Amino acid sequence: MRGARTLGPNVRTLALRYVLEDVPRLVASLAGIAFAVALVLVQTGIYSGFVRSTTLLVDNSDADLWVASRAMSYLEITLPIPYSWVAKIGAIDGVQHAEPLVLRSAIWQSADGTLDYIRVIGFEPAGSTLRLGASPEALAAMRRGDVATDAAQLASLHASGVGARGTIRGLPARVAVITRASQPIVSPTFLYTSLDSAVAWTPLSLNEIMDGQHGSGSPINYVLVRVRSPGSVDTVRASIEHALPGARAFPRDEMAAITRTFWVERTKIGFLLLLGASLGVFVGGIVVAQILYASVNEHLREYGTLKALGIADRSLYGTIALQAVTIAALGYLPGLAIGVAIAFAAAAGRGTPIEITPQGALLAFAVALFTCVAAAFLAVQRAVRVDPALAFSA
Known about the structure:
Strand order of the largest sheet: 3-4-8-5-7-6
Radius of gyration: 30 Å
Structural class: alpha+beta
Distance between the termini: 29 Å
Oligomer: single chain
């Protein structure tokens, strides 16, 4: 036992020597782990960014309540409600401000004839509850026919920037404001415009087609409500639903949660991202397992010598586990750098939000560590079964 204890530091030194003695093999190991780490970071970052982006319209509002039809499934799937609800809700005790929101689909045709499927968001630019990453003054100055859109969507619209023109349903439209962080990943291009423009471009009723104005029976999608006191949200919510039996009033957080849940649970996007991350872990694990196994085979005589000197099997396990942990730590750093670089490039080039969070980074490190240790466990079986007599064979 005393001999085994004195051999401990030598075993650790041996483990590190085995890792560093073959530089090309070490580079291959680190490349495999870096690939797995980067893929896990990017996939989890895409998932986080995707989930957050689905609720940007809700998150970018100061509304305390979103009033919708009781049949609403999530933000972009709901039945129309009458415009007259705006005045009725505004008259309810505790309501400070109520404004309509229209969300409809249309086709944008750029000046060069290119088409793009769009989502028209009709709101009140002056004094709106929406915050779109643009100055309130710029939004308030929007005239009929003006639109605001996210900077990342200019290429889709074939628009050069502010002043670019196109048509929607044959009527002129002009990019007047550039917004930031206002475009969901999976949705069509969002164009924010005034209610009048939204009605003219995407009519749903005969009176809208004829005069382009909202009448008392014209359909909208939501009423955004600010309450006078933050503590009265539940009371105002109950009053709205009592006054309008066909309505549901959702607090902003609940509205966002409903939308996130829809995309996560009722689509296959989360599963596909998880599958991609799992593939990266599998590939990285295979690379490390092969390299560690080859290293064990090449040093069987040394392991046989250690066994002949009475080294315990657990020390051999520790030797190879230390190699695995070293490879995991060294491979994690370039993988982290690659993942962050990809996220930055995606955000800068296409406005795609890949969120590298501290939780995601810790998860990637845990994955790298688990992968390497699992690979080491498979490789160490050969070392602990080696015959000590091998040390003395020719």
